[in-house]
Amino acid sequence: MKKTRALIALMVAIFMLSACGQSEFTYVRDKQGTTYFKVPATFTQLNAYPIELYLSGDHPNSQSAMLRAQRVWSTAFDQAAEPSVNHLLGSQEPFVYATVHQLTEEQRDTISLNRLRDFVLPVTEQMRELYAQQATATGQPAMFNRFEPISDDVLVLDDGARGVHVRFNYQIGNDVQTFDHTAILDEKGGTVSVMLIGCQSICFLKRAGEFDKIASSFKLLRLPG
To answer: Rounded to whole angstroms, how far apart are CA atoms 68 and 74?
Structure first.
């Protein structure tokens, strides 16, 4: 009942804003209609497919990429004057990436709070060590350096859903980037919804309140019935 009222309130808010002219926010939901969030209307929405290829390492014409496309929904928003998916890991302006994964049976068996923390970037000590080892093995300089944890909260949500909200810094190139990462596993253990907000640390300090509002809008809602 609580989630039904929340959904109705959200829909009423969207209707009222659209009826009154230009909305202050862009309201977003995934293709299944179960993950919702909002970003300021000043953000430009981007095609996140290049991000999926970068994060997965898949070739766009591979079977893995095609199977991933069937299980993964994603989108991105950039507030830079010249928006680009390349700003995911480095920008003076805020960048928001959101994705919803339908887990495979193997992934369901191995999902954990630490796996939620590491869903996009290496956050846990074990994953950071593995990342450093892989960089050394390939002879390539590590992109992510000098990890700094800021906060780490476990989320206990309605009907058994759970998740994590983690904030941390990485030095990438000459700049320090702050990332705000929320990952939620639904009550059935079959879907992971993730939001990653990032920009340079100076930007994040100045606009932390705005980022808190974006992160707090990221929710799981269920349609009636």
So the answer is: 11
d(Cα 158, Cα 63) in Å, to the nearest integer?
A: 36
CA distance 44 to 35: 19
* Contacts within 8 Å (CB) and 24+ apart, 29-33: 30/73, 30/98, 30/100, 30/193, 31/73, 31/100, 32/73, 32/100, 33/223
Residue (of 107, 39, 45) closest to 71 by Cα position: 107
pLDDT tens across the length of the chain (225 residues):
555 555 555 555 544 444 455 689 999 999 888 899 999 999 999 999 999 988 888 787 888 878 888 889 999 999 999 999 999 998 889 999 999 999 989 899 999 999 999 999 999 999 999 999 998 998 888 899 999 999 999 999 888 899 999 999 999 999 999 999 999 999 999 999 999 999 999 999 999 999 999 999 999 976 544
Q: pTM, whole model, 2 decimals?
A: 0.86
d(CA 195, CA 180): 8
Question: ∠ CA 189-119-94 to the nearest 5 degrees?
Answer: 120
Residue 153 C-beta-side C-alpha neighbours within 13 Å: 11
Tell me the residue type at 92.
Answer: Q
Please say whether the beta carbons of 26 and 45 come within 8 A: yes
Run of H or E residues at 194: strand 191-200
DSSP-assigned letter for residue 207: T
DSSP lists the bridge partners of residue 101 as 72, 192
